[in-house]
Design a protein that fits this description.
The structure is a single chain. Helix 2 runs parallel beside helix 3 and helix 4 packs parallel to helix 5. This protein has an eight-stranded parallel barrel, surrounded by eight helices. Helix content is about 45%, strand content about 15%. Helix 11 links the parallel strand 7 and strand 8. The longest helix has 17 residues. The protein starts with a helix and ends with a helix. The protein is of the alpha/beta class.
Length: about 250
Amino acid sequence: MSLINRLQQEMVVGIFSKTIDSAFVEAAGLSGLDFIILDQEHGPLSLDTIHNHVRAAQITPISSIVRVKGVDSHAIGAALDSGADGVQVPNINNAEQAAAAVRAARFHPVGQRGVCRFVRAAAFGNQDKADYFSKSNEKLVILQVEGLEGIRNLDEILSVPGFDVLFVGPYDLSQSVGKPGQVDSPEVVELIQDIAKKAKSSGVLLGAFCDTKDNAMLLKNEGFRYLAYSVDMNIYMEACRSVRGLFA
């Protein structure tokens, strides 16, 4: 079952990835996680690395999502050309940006994604053309709303057709209210609850980042279905620390 179909029924859990070693992606896939977000916004991932990471994900059950740096039609198209299962676009502040991201990620009649079927996503031209264009429009498109401007324009963003998940970044929200890093502050929690209420009434699926069990439970209770928990390099470091602690 595809990730989007599972999202319609249940919560899915993944992590962000900033590593350049595809073995970490493969290991994440073997762990039973549902998805991994390959991060080009805050990570050092080149397009070459993205292609290798997507290959690593595809030999396991995990879904690969590429977070690009912003609303850039070429970057969005290139991420999907790699064969990734979806694209995540940060810093959406208004309906115009949301619509532009959707256009860049979808082929006609939904969007205006640049067309080349001789890419990895189309088996370098070996996939039937009609099948490729049809199935490509089923890839996951996730839009991130992270600041007060986006929240002010949330109703208009939610009305844009063609995307699958609205993703909330609690750390960016904390920055926007003048409390950077204080993701548990009442102001941030209230914003998350307001966003959740509006998204649910619009029938839009919700996603978010979390890095503690308490954050995760808050989001789960608010109806968030797509939860990205922490970052691979930090998870690895903490695991190493726990091993060292066994001998302290």
